[in-house]
Model the fold of this input.
Amino acid sequence: MWIDFDTVEVSIKNLRRAGIRTFLTLIGVIIGIAAIVSLLSIGQGLSVAVEQQFEQLGSNTIFVIPGAASIGSGSSSFGLSPEITPSDLSRIESTRGVESAIPIYSRSAVFEFNNQKISVSIMAVEAGKADLFQNTGFMDVQEGSMITRNDSSGILIGNSVAFDTFDRDLSIRKKVLLNGIEYTVRGILKKQTSSFGGGPSTGNSIYMSLDAFNRLDPTAVITPSIVFVKTLTKEDVVDTTAKIKADLERKYGEKSFTVYSSDQILEQINQILSLITLFLAGVGGISLIVGGIGIMNAMITSVMERTKEIGVMKALGASNNKILMIFVLESAFIGGIGGLIGIIVGYGLASVIAIVGSATGFNLVAAFSLEITIGALLFSMLIGMISGILPAIRAAKLDPVAALRYE
Amino acid sequence: MKTGEIVRLKNVTKLYGIGEVVITALESVDLIICNNEYVSIMGPSGSGKTTLLDIMTTMMKPTSGEVFIEGVSTTKLSNSELASFRGKKIGFIFQTFNLLPKLTAIENVITPMWINGVPRAEREPRAKDLLEQVGLGDRMYNRPNQLSGGQKQRVAIARALAMNPNIIVADEPTGNLDSKSGLHVMEILRKLHKDDKRTVIVVTHDESIGKQAERKIMIRDGKIVSGHEKHVCQLRE
Done:
């Protein structure tokens, strides 16, 4: 048998005796693996975080947006987009599989307080339907209370508007002007950490009931800028999305509306994330290749220095294959041990990045996955073996007589 | 082993070089060494005695001819078969000791044991015993750089005996030793032959060493010039 316990033991002993050289070679592998593992860990963490946010929104949610929008392009599109009429809304709501349809109305307005003016975006929802947002984490009230049904003069303001915008902080019961019309602050939202594609950023927004919204411009006919549709069950989502889309396009034509299920958005985001993560990990992989070259260099030098030893071992009865095995194992171990340490360092690095990121407002998480761990370990051992195979073959092929007499 | 032949070279020729420049290191050599013989191989520099040694110990393959060790034709064996065969049948002693420098004495003696598959439990006791036999019981855990020349050679002898081979081959065993250590080593070789009944082959250019053998084989210019007379081995118990 080429590989047996003795061969393994001898390889490990040889590595230990080489001391510093082994250590320096290890560093190359450690850095490479740590880079890859930390990047993959953060990448996967991001993916998980995004999924969690979507989970909160509800994975049985469909977004209907007028216009041929694509993810990330914002809510407006060029040209005239069709408007969702009340009859459209009720048709959507009566589509099979739909539990409820919640239209969101939005516009911008000038917010005046303390003789200062800023532009804000306003979102309004029919009273009663605001419960949708109750547990999503977007509308957590820090001070005061949520808007009630008939409140036509109360507003909910985002954290940044309250504290980061004006010279004086806003608090509840304060009166402000929106487009010159007076409103009262009923509540202030909690500061929100940046979400990745999960939901609206509420920092600079104002929320109000539909009654309050109509007061801004009583004569205007308002249409929803987006409709959240909740399906009865998760399984209904795909079919329902298709039905709604087909229905709207029948009436308004192709590309008139964008209908996405939250799953679809999630998938697209994940795809992009995966691409970015893989690219970054690939860059990390370059350093691993350099590490592999380091192994090759160390092994070639090792073979040269141990030429006489190899000759002696052959005289003592070691076959060429045994010599080959010893050297291949040595380089495989450098890969493996470097991989193990690199994985630990990599996860540690990812955790540090996550902590630092969270402190500055980015919702970063380090993911610990068995796949990343085992994958990285096998990969590092493979790199070790491949890097060491050429020097090992050289060692195996040494002429014993010449090797013995080598000085 | 019908004829009691331990080593048999049959019409062995070894040529070096390619194309125009060809050196004949050995020319049609026939040689028989019998079981439990004490033989010395002598010749001047460039006579081919080193090549003869290398071929006899299967470290090198002849250009033509056959080599038999204990009746087995070694020229037909594969590399790993040959290595295994050599490891078990032949014990080497070199002029420059050739101990593994990073290992202790006992680890050096154990080396052929793990190479040739001796069960783990037997290795250390056997190594200790061998080192004691050569008088190094108190130096077992020293590294070569902590040992004198004579001590190193004795470790090498213990290592050569690790697989309990019949054939002991020594290449200028006293070449790097002072005269006292040299005498000690030759005494050990004599015992290996007389008491253990092993076959001892010594290659040397030193007359005082060579004459200690039962039979002296002289080689010059790639040919054996004496010591190889019609030789028939007797079966010895």
Remarks:
- The longest strand of chain A covers residues 98-113.
- Chain A touches chain B at residues 6, 10, 17, 308-309, 311-322, 400-401, 404 (CB under 8 Å).
- Confidence is low (pLDDT under 50) at residues 194-199 of chain A.
